[in-house]
Each structure stands twice: as structure tokens, then as C-alpha cells.
Design brief:
single chain, 340 residues, alpha/beta, Nucleotidyltransferase, domain 5, 2 domains, 5-stranded mixed sheet, 10 helices
Length: 340
């Protein structure tokens, strides 16, 4: 099947970002994201509010994506959407809209696994980043997932390591909340960490199997650390914020790299890619670049706009599936929990 002037609309609504993108032969023509600010005052995503906001945002976001790509909806060849995993209410909005639009336009519908999309975002054509060669290892790190994936082909992926409890993004955000930082706290920890001493304080690295992760104990350690030190000095956190953030980030990044080094050693694969919201973190990016230099890895780091939830990554998977005519039927349903 030729992809000459083939336009795929990608729609992402797995959590609290409503996004739409248009792709043509691997090139992203538009990538629009509407971020929901309402969750900041609650210190985390409120599912019911998220689904309501998606209902308000999805039509204007799709219209803007079409406008920026300078095409009409009747020029679309297929619609790709996030089927899961994610918040069920949020997923239902994107799924229902995509099914309706595809049916109305008489074009194919393509369901996409959100986590696979974070990995396959590396195949978007861009001069800013390189494309991995198969097989490669992917470290997917976000607010809901922490996984090491052995990627053999576009649609052949095996999870070889994952968190047994909390995800790394949650560990960042919850630790930030314990320090009195606003939501989302992960980017703030990264910001302050760059000003601090990473060896100022010591936090534990949980001990689990060689390729798996655990972050619940680390969050507890941060809680006790804050309680212990603020007991005698209520201003301890504010007075030492940069050093605390630097030490915490150093521990988390070092822990991620330990597991990744184990995976490289076990599989013999030295080509490594990262994806997911936490892959925007400067600490993990610098650690990977250092590994490329010192350990002989070939590292692939996505553009910032393809790290956090976006529709460009949904669109590239849609295009890859369109080539192979891997279409969904109209009775496809959203899945909050979804395996590879």
C-alpha cells in the first residue's frame, strides 16, 4: 500500500491532555495539545474532571490540528486513537469521538496502545533525533509506568522489567508534594536539582530483582526524611531544597541506570531508547548520554514535545498500522489496563 499523500489523524486522551496530530509519510504536520490546568489545585489528576475537560476540548483541538496541517477532514485516510491504558473516562471520550468521526467520514479506525506509542515516537521523521535499529531496548518512564522493553519490531515488544508497585513519575510527584511543591512536582524537582549537590543527602535504592523496579519504599523514605528534619527546623526543606532535589533525583536516575545496565548486560543489546513523560528529565538524559560515551551504547532521546502525552506518537503508530492494514472494527472498546 502506497503512502503517497496519506493523512492520518492521531487522537490522544489517556489522562489529562487532549491532543490531536496529523502525520503524512512520517512527517508531523501538526501536533496540538490542550493541557488541563484545573488539576493543579487538587494536587493530582481528578478523573471525573479530566473526562469533562476532554469533552470540551476534543472538537476544537482536532479542528486546530487540521487547520495547522492545512488540510480538510475529508482528506483524512484514517483515524488513530489511544485505546489504553489510561483513565477510563478520559479514554472513552477519545474512543467515542474517533469511532464517530471515522464512521462519518467512511475511513478506517486504528486503535493504539499508549505505551507502545511512546516507544514508536522515535520513528517520527525529525532531524533532531535518530531512529533506533531493531532490536533495541526501550525504557518507558511516566507517571503511570516504569518498564524496560525489548523491541524486536514495530509490533513485537516484550516487557523484561517493570515496577512492582509505583511508577517513577509518581515517585517524583509524591516526593515533591511531601516537600510542599505544587503539582506536577517532577519538573520542579528537576529544576531545583540542577542548582544543588547530588551527594548532600542519601536516599535508599530499593532492592528487587535485577530488571524490576520499586518506588514505594523511596517515597516512604522521603516522608520520614522530611518529618525527621523539620521536627527541629521547620524551615529545613526550604533552606535545603536544591540539595534535597539534587540528591533525590540522583538516587532515582542512578537506580534507573542500574536496571538499564543490567538489561543491556542480559540481552547484549546496546541500542537504548527512552520514552514517556519522565524522559524529559535532564538527569536521565545526561546519564544516558554519559553511558553512550563511556559504555559504547547507542542512545535515542526524543524531542521534548514527544516525551509527555501527545498525539504525534499516536499518529505515527496509526501510520505504521495503516501500511499493514491493521484496522479496528467499530465495536472496539477502551481499556484502562492494556497489555502490549
Amino acid at each position: 500500500m502506497t503512502l503517497k499523500q496519506t493523512y492520518i489523524l492521531g487522537i490522544e486522551s489517556s489522562c489529562d491532555d487532549t491532543a490531536a496530530a496529523i502525520i503524512n509519510n512520517g512527517v508531523i504536520l501538526s501536533n496540538v495539545v490542550a493541557t488541563q490546568r484545573i488539576h493543579e489545585e487538587y494536587g493530582g489528576v481528578v478523573p471525573e474532571l479530566a473526562s469533562r475537560a476532554h469533552q470540551q476540548n476534543i472538537v476544537p483541538v482536532v479542528q486546530l490540528a487540521l487547520q495547522k496541517a492545512n488540510i480538510d477532514k475529508n482528506q483524512l485516510n484514517a483515524i488513530a486513537f489511544t485505546r489504553g491504558p489510561g483513565l477510563m473516562g478520559s479514554l472513552l471520550v477519545g474512543t467515542s469521538f474517533s469511532k464517530s468521526l471515522a464512521m462519518g467520514l467512511g475511513i478506517p479506525l486504528i486503535d493504539v496502545n499508549h505505551m507502545q506509542a511512546h516507544i514508536l515516537a522515535h520513528f517520527i521523521k525529525s532531524e533532531a533525533h535518530s531512529t533506533p535499529n531493531f532490536p533495541f531496548l526501550a525504557l518507558t518512564i511516566s507517571g503511570g509506568h516504569t518498564q524496560i522493553v525489548n523491541v524486536s519490531s514495530y509490533f513485537e515488544m516484550e516487557i523484561i522489567g517493570q515496577t512492582i508497585d509505583d511508577a517513577v513519575g509518581e515517585a517524583f510527584d509524591k516526593s515533591a508534594k511531601l516537600m510542599g511543591l505544587p503539582y506536577p512536582g517532577g519538573p520542579l524537582i528537576d529544576k531545583y536539582a540542577q542548582l544543588g549537590n547530588p551527594k548532600a543527602f542519601k536516599f535508599p535504592k530499593p532492592k528487587v530483582s535485577p530488571l524490576d523496579f520499586s518506588f514505594s519504599g523511596l517515597k516512604t523514605a522521603v516522608l520520614y526524611f522530611v518529618q525527621r528534619n523539620t521536627k527541629d527546623n521547620p524551615d529545613f526543606v526550604s533552606e535545603n531544597l536544591n540539595d534535597i532535589c539534587a540528591s533525590l533525583q540522583f538516587t532515582i536516575v542512578d537506580y534507573l541506570m542500574d536496571k538499564l545496565k543490567n538489561a543491556v548486560k542480559q540481552t547484549g543489546i546496546k541500542e537504548v531508547a527512552i520514552g514517556g513523560g519522565v524522559s524529559a528529565n535532564s538527569g536521565i538524559r545526561n546519564a544516558l548520554l554519559a553511558a553512550e560515551k563511556n559504555l559504547g551504547w547507542k542512545v535515542h532521546i526524543p524531542k521534548f514535545e514527544y516525551c509527555t502525552d501527545n498525539a504525534a506518537m499516536i499518529a505515527i503508530v496509526g501510520e505504521l498500522k495503516y501500511k499493514e492494514q491493521k484496522f479496528a472494527t467499530n465495536d472496539v472498546v477502551a481499556k484502562a489496563r492494556m497489555k502490549f
